[in-house]
Amino acid sequence: MDSVQVVEAIKRRLSLKEVVSRYVALKPAGRGRWKGLCPFHQEKTPSFYVDEEKGLFHCFGCKAGGDLIAFVERIEGLDFQTALERLAEEAGVELPRRLGGERRKELYEVLKLAQAYFQEGLRAHPEAMAYLEGRGLSGESVGRFGLGYAPPKGDGLLTYLSRHGVSPEEGLKAGVLAEKEGRYYDRFRNRITFPIKDHLGRIVAFTGRALGDEAPKYLNSPETPLFRKREVLFAFPEAKARLREGRAIVVEGLFDAIALHQLGFSETVAVLGSGLSEEQARLLKTQEVREVYLAFDADEAGQKATLQSLDLEMARKFLFYAVRLPVKDPGELLLHPEGRALFQKALEEALPEVEFRFQEAAKGLDLSRPEHKRKVLEALTPRMLSPEPFDPVAERLKALVVERLGLSPKELADYLQARKRGRPLPPPPPPKAEPRNRTLLLELDVMALLLSLPEESFLNWVLYAADHVWPPEGSLLAEFLELARKEPRKDYLRSVLSRKEAGGILLERLMLAPEVDPSRLPEVMDKALARLREAYYLERRAKLKEVFLQNPSQELLREIQELDQAIEAERRIYRGL
Question: What pLDDT is recorded for position 282?
Fold first, then answer.
């Protein structure tokens, strides 16, 4: 199979609507159509549509659009090849043998072997299992999350991989081996290992927790073609089912996540850095999470991570709560006889985002002193200056500031207005891909009509259009007709054209194109081509008139008159006269 056939096979097996639904809450909008809030820009009224029959998505607000592959590329921030590989694996479609795809497949196999080695290491070293039991973890939790142990030996995994035909270079690329001055050795030694999985449940990396005093306490795999720590959440595959109920608990530590699962809070996931990232927040949104409880460590770093998470652009799609822990971190609750009840109480008493922001801003300050009130006001100003016309968090924060700092609503409004004026203007939004040229719009209408036809009759109508309209060299329609004759595959053409400057409006016209009764197709096609020919004649006539005004001649006048006759003939066709 070539890449075009692979794309077609993926689209046959995967529903565009189902894939988009992982990221967008869709509602029916007519036969085979759904609508929702666009994931690519902030909006309150749905302008994002999915058309299952046409295999297209389009936002009438920001003009984002395309097919299944284009959606995954854009929503996940991937290139075409990586998006194709992800979808092919999910659909069970075999990709053509390519270096990139084969390498990724090999890396998954290396990581599976490493996981087998680490789990064998845990069974062979009772002291490692005793450490986990000492932390309160049950055998069921250890098995469910695939915990293992990397023995102290520096070449144990290296030798194990070699016995299974894996070279040191491949182990290095997978992130489980390290290299120094040409010598390869095990990256993880004398550490409890945590397999890190992607959203499909595939192992993409490991984290190792030192058993002794080795530094660092936690060691992560380096970033690889499979692993970027901003894009994964630990325990996400295990939490998926509960996340669908609408609530997520987000913690910092891997032990913390496992401990809370063991205590019954299986909607828990852990970040792999400090605070939630945009990509991780988007993962939560795919599971229709509405409420996010941030249960980061009770120290200063944990509170800073909480604030950082609240400031994400994606954060505006959730209701956030900050959990005040009764202990340093959630993992300690596993050893407390009332651990579950204590955490349940902390959830019930969690601070809504607005209250948490105010308390953090006012920490250590005396609000009876004007200069301290000023500090709180300045700390909260960036969040109150929301670009959204109605931002519920910003509005509640303003009300709290008025109440707690003793300001009048007018005083606060005047202050914020002055701050807004004093800030540099944001860059202007990029221009929409809406072409104003009438001829280009008519070309796009012809292309949209052709692309809406059944695959079996597509080429015949392309040839018909090419025989009945004569687009100027270099025009978009000329390029389309040339491409369609060489490669008459609609998916391929849509993919190519969607990346053009006018691609957004073409997708919009495709989404809006009504179904044409086959018996009326010749009439509809002839009228569309007549309008386009008229536009070409009008452009030619306008240019000739400019030349005629500067240098009149009988020859030019005669040509203008012939064009007038041709324009009138085309009008009779599309008016049905």
Answer: 84
